[in-house]
């Protein structure tokens, strides 16, 4: 197979938002204008919430205006002791530890596994102190955390478990929705995610008693017209977001199929290049096709940073997700000094990982160019 390298006229980014036909969206927006009901648990909102419960195969799901507010509410709803510690991964987006901090809790960073890049369970155990109250696992790139082992640890040490599934929309483990593990799971519907409602998100959980608490926290803690009983927040998804979400719900399965075929093209080519490792999904889980990460190992002739620049010269804008680590952020620096965990896998992988352009309508010629560049610098 010959891979022609050709510079793209326009920048190629790692993703492109899934969008319905504008005519279809216009129709929805007109209906919303006509109804004069713009937000506060409207018709579109409730329909989307119901549909998501089915698609995510979870007993309960509640919509949010974005995933971050959802995750903040999830931690709040579990009533964790004031100033307690939440063990999480440093190899994630800024929102994950920030949600812990916004709750007045302390994020404690555990290392990640070399293979799946999800939180390492042995490292979790080493991070546990009398102040630990919860584990916040991240299904990074859609790779599921070791949910069974994490449940076991949580049971042994009496901890709550929350999952950040921002990358794992519609992922299943042994046929079960990924949002059914742990106490609460957060999904994000941000424009860059596989399924989007421009901004948006939801929380899923099994415990029916959480429904009332989370609904209440989502709407300022307003119980009734004359009673406010909790320090809630504004987490409501509006009707325009919900309408776009409903239209995109009809499209994400097809998008996944297109991404699956791109994944095959990439993987087939990369598996023949030494020094390039493709992290694989465990066989009992399905992929969300959120990202296509590759690991540039030490025996590849040039470094990840050099390869990133080479690709950029051809207008291919890859992303170094997740560099820097959250544990390297200035705002968590002071905390780092108190953390004894070495984070060796995370520190190694942050310099080796590269996320490649990955969306359904990615042109074949661009895929060929990307593969061609990888081959060119491998020799
Ligand atoms: C996108 C993302 C979030 C935040 O979700 P928003 O909906 O943008 O607030 C949280 N965690 C991870 C890992 C993400 O990628």
Notable traits:
13 helices, globular, seven-stranded mixed β-sheet, 379 residues, three-stranded antiparallel β-sheet, alpha/beta
How does this structure look, described?
There is one protein chain. The protein has 379 residues and is of the alpha/beta class. It is built from 13 helices and 14 strands. Helix 2 runs parallel beside helix 8, helix 3 crosses helix 4 and helix 3 packs across helix 7. The longest helix is centred in the last third of the chain and has 19 residues. The chain is globular. The model has no long low-confidence stretch (mean pLDDT 96). The protein binds pyridoxal-5'-phosphate. Pyridoxal-5'-phosphate (PLP) binds next to helix 3 and helix 4.
Present the secondary structure layout.
Blueprint: H1 22-35, H2 43-55, E1 60-64, H3 67-77, E2 85-88, H4 95-102, E3 106-109, H5 121-127, E4 132-138, H6 147-157, E5 160-164, E6 172-173, E7 176-177, E8 184-188, E9 201-205, H7 210-218, E10 222-224, E11 227-228, H8 239-249, H9 252-270, E12 276-277, E13 292-296, H10 304-313, H11 333-338, H12 344-349, E14 353-356, H13 364-376
Parallel strand pairs: 2-3, 2-4, 4-5, 5-8
Antiparallel strand pairs: 1-9, 6-7, 8-9, 10-11, 12-13, 13-14
Residues 66-68, 92-93, 95-96, 138, 164, 166-167, 188, 190, 201 line the site of pyridoxal-5'-phosphate (PLP).
């Amino acid at each position: 197979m010959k891979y022609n390298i050709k510079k793209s006229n326009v920048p190629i980014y790692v993703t492109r938002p899934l969008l319905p036909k504008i005519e279809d969206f216009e129709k929805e927006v007109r209906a919303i204008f006509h109804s004069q009901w713009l937000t506060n648990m409207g018709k579109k909102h409730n329909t989307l919430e119901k549909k998501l419960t089915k698609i995510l195969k979870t007993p309960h799901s509640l919509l949010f205006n974005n995933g971050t507010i959802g995750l903040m509410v999830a931690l709040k709803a579990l009533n964790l002791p004031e100033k307690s510690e939440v063990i999480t991964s440093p190899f994630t987006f800024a929102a994950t530890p920030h949600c812990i901090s916004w709750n007045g809790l302390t994020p404690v960073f555990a290392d990640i596994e070399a293979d799946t890049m999800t939180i390492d369970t042995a490292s979790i155990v080493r991070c546990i102190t009398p102040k630990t109250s919860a584990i916040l696992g991240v299904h990074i790139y859609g790779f599921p955390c070791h949910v069974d082992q994490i449940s076991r640890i949580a049971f042994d040490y009496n901890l709550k478990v929350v999952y950040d599934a921002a990358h794992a929309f519609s992922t299943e483990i042994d046929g079960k929705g990924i949002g059914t593990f742990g106490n609460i799971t957060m999904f994000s519907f941000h424009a860059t995610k596989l399924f989007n409602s421009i901004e948006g998100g939801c929380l899923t959980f099994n415990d029916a008693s959480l429904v009332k608490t989370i609904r209440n926290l989502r709407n300022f803690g307003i119980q009734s017209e004359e009673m406010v009983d909790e320090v809630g927040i504004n987490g409501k998804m509006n009707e325009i977001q919900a309408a776009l979400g409903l239209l995109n719900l009809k499209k994400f399965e097809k998008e996944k199929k297109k991404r699956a075929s791109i994944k095959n093209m990439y993987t087939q080519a990369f598996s023949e290049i030494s020094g390039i490792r493709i992290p694989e999904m465990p066989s009992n889980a399905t992929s969300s096709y959120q990202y296509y990460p590759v690991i540039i190992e030490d025996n590849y002739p040039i470094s990840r940073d050099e390869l990133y620049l080479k690709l950029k010269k051809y207008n291919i804008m890859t992303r170094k997700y997740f560099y820097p680590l959250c544990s390297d952020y200035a705002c968590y620096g002071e905390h780092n000094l108190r953390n004894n965990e070495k984070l060796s896998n995370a520190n190694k992988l942050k310099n080796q990982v590269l996320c490649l352009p990955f969306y359904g309508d990615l042109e074949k010629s661009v895929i060929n160019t990307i593969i061609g560049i990888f081959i060119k610098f491998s020799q």
